[in-house]
Amino acid sequence: MLTSSPSRRAVLAGAAAVAAVAGAPVLAGRARAAGASGYRWRNVVIGGTGFITGVLFHPRVRGLAYARTDIGGAYRWDGRRESWVPLLDHIGWDDWNLLGVEAMAVDPAHPDRLYLACGTYAQTWADNGAVLRSDDRGATWRRTDLTVRLGANEDGRGTGERLLVDPRDSDTLWLGTRHDGLLKSTDRGARWAPAGGFPATPSATGQGVTFLVAAGRTVYAGWGDGGDTNLFRTSDGVTWEAVPGQPSGTAARVPIRAAYDRHARELYVTYADAPGPNGQSDGSVHKLRTAGDEWTEVTPAKPDAGSADTFGYGGLAVDARRPGTVVVSTNNRWAAVDTLYRSTDGGRSWRSLKETAVLDVSETPYLKWGEDEPKFGWWIQALALDPYDSHHLVYGTGATLYGTRDLRHWAPRVRGLEETSVTQLVSPPTGRAHLISGARDIGVMYHERLTSSPARGMATNPVSGSATGLAQAARRPAYVVRAGWGGNGNGAASHDGGRTWRPFASQPGIAEDAPGPIAVNADGSVLLWSFAHWDGTTYPAHRSADDGATWSEVPSFPKGAVPVADPADPALFYAYDTATGTLFASTDGGRSFAARASGLPAGDSQFKVVAAPGRTGDLWLSAKGNGLHRSTDGGRSFTAVESCRASYTLGFGRAAAGAAYPAIYQVGSTGAITAVYRSDDEARTWVRINDDDHQWGWTGETVTGDPRVYGRVYLATNGRGIQYGEPA
Questions:
Q1: What pLDDT, on a 0 to 100 scale, did the predictor assign at position 28?
Q2: Which residue in 226, 406, 618, 715 could disulfide with 723, CB within 3.0 to 4.6 Å?
Q3: What is the DSSP string of 697-724?
Q4: Is 344 a residue whose pLDDT tops 70?
Q5: Active site residue 496
Q6: Can you name the residues that pair with 134 across neighbouring β-strands?
Q7: Domains (range + CATH), the chain
Q8: SS3 (DSSP) at 365
Q9: What pLDDT, on a 0 to 100 scale, did the predictor assign at position 269?
């Protein structure tokens, strides 16, 4: 496990600052004080579940470590609690793009300093990136906005750190970008400007700088835009040159990571024919004796282009205590499964660690993915060796972070690190579970305890990659249905409240390519399944009245709409046509639909209709910037809710003591701030229940209260898992 000296509790207070790459004046500001929400917020424990793209041990402080993720922020290891502390939960709705961490850097001379380069997407529709600077290990931050975009969730996100404190001067920082070349700051990241003399020419589609690493007082930069010249260096911070004799050819097309053995004075570099994490089929490992520019290939195993065993090389770590000891990872090796290779003689010989590995995933059982044994790993690009313990090795995968103390026994080291992108939430009114959830990549989870990863792991029979639908029969809560991608079927039903599942006996042909949301009527006798492809193409919905044994098309259902069952009347279904702003209803159990209210907000697929529990025809429409609307006549008419300026998602929970109507929870705005709110009086008034330290970026997918516990609310995030709040 990771260990560290006691660290202060993260305050997670964000601070505002603005700067331009060209060097405009910095406008400094202070973080607002945390709001007095009266709520305590915690993660529903699943454990990891996302791509950990980098792990960094501090070279001068025993046990101090940081991790970065592609969409879920950054973390600091707390050895006293043996868990990760999230550092970016203060990122708000408007700044959601900053929860992707492209790179991180520490200052060897100043252990409390931490720098993050944040920006999830480099596409033209995305906001610019930012550099966050901390003097207290991520407890508080100062922020410098950039005029360039970063791409923490794009191809190449598992390459090395693109951010570096200059080894000669702690005030100087380097930042490698994807499409805007190399940037430099001489005031500890407050202002940034293009680095003069850097010879590589950026492009709008390439990888740009893939890593920055110090080898003594020299800085090396990997370049991922193709060609045989892909490694540069500077010894004075001014003049850059291509490294002589560097590897060339297909396998060396993209330098992925580099690490310096200061005892042997050798720089190791992993290469692949694509940036990864997907798409790699060839790769190699090389080392450079920096004193004489002597290169040696030390590739542990060659990919076999004539078979299915193709892969690249990704992760790389050297032992700070033992010269010549180095570990590398394969990547994208799906046939033979990825492994780690370890050498103790400078790469002359290697031993694979996978064959002798004993994996214990009892703390996060979902990692078996419905099989008898877990997989050693995939998407292994993050790899780190503890500089104070030669046998303490950790590596990231697409779902977790494994660690060992003896190079044989491995277990996930992800307590506190939750990166799930959540799409579905159901809180049953009865039964053993208080929460059933659906997510991208890990399917459906059944939580009997919120504080531990489900003992049964992810829902199986079938195993599904990403959940697209999850619904419970309101008057028959033991009956639950789900839809999603993958497995031996795309839909399944449970007759025990979500504990066990069986696939539908049949499914519509389109389900394999375009599974969408699914609904079940109040008594569980009718299923309604909508279909939409990821590219936006929509298809007719289908209906089943025999538990999924047979299906029939519903031509009058608006294509691609989300089906909503009335919670009291089994004959009623609803659907909102976002293209025309029209509410459709069915009074014959989903056989046919007819238009009711029209002229409602249109043009956005994320408008949501939610039915109030236990009532017939009581519908609420979250219309994003068009506010919140309510119908009490089954969608024949809607009235705007004056207390709400914007509503992104809405759900219900147990009513307050003495209240006749369920508590309402929403992500929205009653004024200038997008936040999480609760109303105990049918949306006449609202109270904000999160605060400035607990915002989690974009949270507009789904929210629901607990029907058994007043005040408890479950919130889906896009990269910080399921948050649940309770009155403190």
A1: 30
A2: 715
A3: S---S-EEE-SSSTT-EEEE-BSS-EEE
A4: yes
A5: no
A6: 114
A7: 17-26+46-412 (2.130.10.10), 420-555 (2.130.10.10)
A8: helix
A9: 98
**DSSP letters spanning 199-235:** -PPP-SSS--EEEEEEETTEEEEEE-SSSS--EEEES
Query: What value does the mean pLDDT take over residues 320-343?
Result: 97
Look at residue 36 in the predicted model and tell me its pLDDT.
Answer: 54
Spell out the alpha helix ranges (H) of 207-313. none
Helix (H, G, I), strand (E, B) or coil at 250: helix
Q: List Cβ neighbours of 531 (8 Å cut-off, separation of 6 or more).
A: 508, 510, 511, 514, 515, 516, 538, 539, 540, 541, 542, 560
Q: List pLDDT tens digits, range 198-225.
A: 999 999 989 999 999 999 999 999 999 9
- Dist. CA 709–CA 653, nearest whole Å: 8
CA–CA gap between residue 556 and residue 377 (Å, rounded): 46
Tokens of 28: 């400094």
Q: Please say whether the beta carbons of 722 and 714 come within 8 A.
A: yes
Any catalytic annotation for residue 293?
no
- In the structure encoding, which two tokens stand for residue 205, read together? 């589609």
* Cα 11 to Cα 34: distance, rounded to the nearest angstrom: 9
Using DSSP bridges, classify how beta strands 142-145 and 163-165 pair: parallel, antiparallel or unpaired.
unpaired
Side by side, the strands of the sheet bearing 552-554 are: 515-520, 527-532, 538-544, 552-554
Sequence-distant (6+) residues with CB within 8 A of 456 are 365, 446, 499
pLDDT digits (tens, 9 = 90+) for 529-545: 999 998 889 999 999 99
Tokens 């599974």 belong to residue: 515
Res. 487: pLDDT tops 90: no
> Per the structure block, which two tokens stand in for 533?
């492809």
One-letter amino acid of 400:
T
Annotated catalytic residue, options 70, 180, 386, 706: 70
DSSP state at residue 501: -
The band of 228, judged by pLDDT with boundaries at 50, 70 and 90, is confident
SS3 646: strand
**463 near 370, Cβ under 8 Å?**
yes
pTM as predicted: 0.94
C-alpha to C-alpha distance for 483 and 455, rounded to whole angstroms: 22
Each residue's pLDDT tens digit, 405-451: 999 999 999 999 999 999 999 999 999 999 999 999 999 999 999 99
Strand segments (E) across 301-366: 312-318, 326-331, 340-343, 351-352, 358-359
Query: 3-class SS at 42?
Result: strand
Quickly state the pLDDT bin for 620 (edges 50, 70, 90).
very high
Name the burial class of residue 166, with classes exposed (0-12), middle (13-18) and buried (19+) by CB atoms within 10 angstroms of its CB: buried
Give me the count of residues in the chain: 728
Provide the pairing of β-strand 476-484 with 467-473. Answer: antiparallel
Give the C-alpha separation, 576 to 1, whole Å. 50
Catalytic residue among 180, 273, 282, 441: 441
